[in-house]
Write a structure and sequence with these properties.
Helix 7 runs parallel beside helix 13 and helix 12 runs antiparallel to helix 13. The radius of gyration is 29 Å and the shape is elongated. It starts with a helix and ends with a helix. The chain contains 19 helices and 4 strands. It is mainly alpha-helical and about 450 residues long. The strands form 2 sheets. It has a two-stranded antiparallel sheet.
Length: about 450
């Protein structure tokens, strides 16, 4: 049991890439390969059935020896093949690992593992997206201060902010779905020639792909690692989206801002300060997502692989992709929890906007002065008014109201919060989300 598993192995994706899941995937490939070989006439159907039965019951296999010998073999497939052969006996062993090499089984198992883990990740991303959609709908027109470069800028709406989260989450789901739909089978034999398949190699590969629901390929991808790179890229992008939403929540929940709060029973306390309520779910989502870029970089760096089979780069992919799937899954699970417990403080948001009227008011003053002074000079005059307010301790509204060269009341009215087409954009994002999720419910 890991001390940090509660944080970094959150959600169902971590279980989908566990050691047990790895064994199940490897055995699923060996069983499917036996059936594919039987379908193409390379081995008896009875032998393939025996292999399938043995692979379906790991308790029949000496997996402890597989683990012990995996490092000496360079990967777990050789000792696993021996374990399956021992389980089915000499007559049926002919259907074990037909024409394949270790990389064929490991690569195919890896994409099966990824497919299951991405399904778990997608479920949490979908839950987060649905909650973001609810927030966008409920707060479509509620004003909140927009912030650029971590400084107050101009008003926007909390609905538009949530719609931005929604669009990112939906986009991440779409990218992951595209990658998963293109995941390929791996089958080429020792150097990709299919020489050990007695002239039926391409037929076995096609049958294996069909057995496992994967895409067939014209040639093996032993050293052309685009499928792994595509997975890494889509997972890294999903982590980036999750991190962006999480950091927004963390910043909005700061004591000095307090425009949102995470509500979770028994969560968020401090060991030293009883009054603190930390947004733990958002913080944890951000922490998990932060681990993703380094793992993505490792997988992209491993794309450079020599000749027909790589020495080392390929091996580095197994734990890296496993950890990437787990940490992105954990990030998505935490974010779903964070948004589910998020409580926006609409009154606080509106008060912040009302207290920060200098930007819109300065712009309105510049617009009012432009006909007489020209755009450039009007801008300078508005900036001078802002400085006058700061230097004299008056509000900018008081400075504007005292001016005789503009209609102060009209300028103040023109400076009311203008959120432009925020509402229409929220509606568009919600419509896209509805189209994406139609049929999922």
């Amino acid at each position: 049991m890991s001390l940090f598993a509660g944080t970094f192995a959150r959600g169902a994706a971590a279980a989908a890439v566990s050691d047990d899941a790895w064994f199940r995937a490897l055995l699923e490939v060996e069983a499917a390969l036996a059936r594919a070989a039987a379908r193409t006439g390379l081995v008896p159907t009875t032998a393939a059935d025996a292999v399938t039965a043995a692979c379906a019951d790991p308790s029949r296999l000496d997996l402890a020896t597989v683990v012990a010998r995996a490092a000496d073999a360079g990967n777990p497939v050789p000792p696993l093949v021996r374990a399956v052969q021992d389980a089915v006996g000499g007559r049926d062993a002919v259907a074990v690992h037909v024409g394949g090499t270790s990389q064929d089984v490991l690569d195919t198992a890896l994409v099966l593992l990824a497919r299951d883990a991405v399904a778990a990740i997608d479920a949490d991303l979908a839950a987060a997206a649905d909650t973001a959609a609810g927030l966008a709908r409920a707060h479509r027109d509620d004003v909140v201060m927009g912030r650029t470069l971590l400084q107050q800028a101009l008003p926007t709406t909390f609905g538009l902010k949530a719609a931005g989260w929604l669009a990112g989450l939906d986009g991440a789901r779409l990218r992951l779905a595209e990658v998963v739909a293109s995941l390929p089978v791996q089958y080429g034999g020792a150097v990709g020639t299919l020489a050990a398949s007695d002239g039926s190699g391409t037929a076995v590969r096609a049958a294996l792909a069909e057995e496992l629901g994967l895409v067939d390929t014209a040639v093996p991808w032993h050293t052309v690692r685009l499928p792994i790179a595509d997975l890494a890229g889509a997972l890294g992008a999903a982590a980036g989206v999750v991190a962006t939403v999480a950091v927004d929540v963390v910043l909005l929940a700061q004591s000095e801002v307090a425009e949102v709060a995470e509500v979770g029973e028994g969560r968020g306390g401090s060991s030293a300060m009883p009054h603190k309520r930390n947004p733990v779910a958002a913080i944890s989502a951000r922490a998990c997502a932060r681990r993703a870029p380094g793992l993505v970089a490792t997988l992209l760096a491993a794309m450079e692989q020599e000749h027909e089979r790589a020495a080392g780069a390929w091996h580095s992919e197994w734990p890296s992709l496993t950890e990437l799937l787990s940490t992105v899954g954990s990030a998505a699970a935490w974010l779903a929890e964070s948004l589910r417990g998020l409580r926006p403080d609409v009154a606080r948001m509106a008060a912040t906007v009302a207290a920060a009227d200098e930007g819109p008011l300065a712009g309105a003053l510049a617009d009012a002065l432009a006909p007489a002074l020209g755009r450039g000079s009007a801008h300078d005059a508005a900036a001078a008014a802002v400085r006058e307010a700061q230097q004299t301790g008056r509000t900018l509204a008081e400075v504007v109201a005292a001016r005789t060269d503009v209609d102060g009341a009209a300028v103040l009215a023109a400076a009311a919060p203008d959120v432009g087409e925020a509402g229409a954009q929220v509606d568009a994002a919600l419509a896209e989300h509805a189209a994406l999720t139609e049929g999922e419910k």
